[in-house]
Amino acid sequence: MSKNDIPENIVTTKLDQFIGWARSYSLWQYVFGTACCAMEFMSVSSSHYDTDRFGAAMPRYSPRQSDMLMVVGTINHKNAPVLRRIWEQMADPKYVVAVGACAVSGGFYRNYATLQGCDLVIPVDVYIPGCPPRPEMILDGIMALQEKIRKSKHYL
Ligand code: SF4
Is the CB of 105 under 6 A from ligand 1? Predict the structure, then answer.
């Protein structure tokens, strides 16, 4: 059968691409908010920014029901093990977004108490800089994660 034999109302794709597309638009977020970035993050959840467009609007309050961990704010050495435990409780496939300079690198807190980036305790998929990042930057980060998910291998 050639490409021209396929009727116009038929769409073909690969199973792996279909799973990637579906997963990229079905992101259930767990927000690990610890500091001022979390205030800015709240505005992202408003209707103005409409994260429903990306299938990423619904926060879950259990890591077992979430697949997108948003690390929002400063992580110190005391709550780093808690963050790690939450990440471990999430089912695969799971993704991590570091939101803001503190989550990315410790921000301007160069002291004994602050973890110099959440990627020291969990793997991070997308880094969003800024202190705090603008809502548009957070949306851009979500879209970057969607792109990464779509390009990942899903079906073995
Ligand atoms: S990056 Fe800036 S706004 Fe965000 S938690 Fe750190 S100090 Fe606060």
Answer: no
Domains and CATH numbers, the chain: 29-46+57-151 (3.40.50.12280)
pTM summary value = 0.91
Between CA 82 and CA 86 the distance in angstroms is 6
Note the pLDDT tens digit of each residue in 45-63: 888 999 999 998 888 889 9
DSSP code for 92:
S
Measured CA distances, 8 to 4, 5, 94 (Å): 9, 9, 36
Any ligand 1 atom below 6 A from CB of 133: no
- Tell me which of 41, 74, 97, 138 to substitute to probe ligand 1's pocket, judged by most ligand atoms within 8 Å of the beta carbon: 74
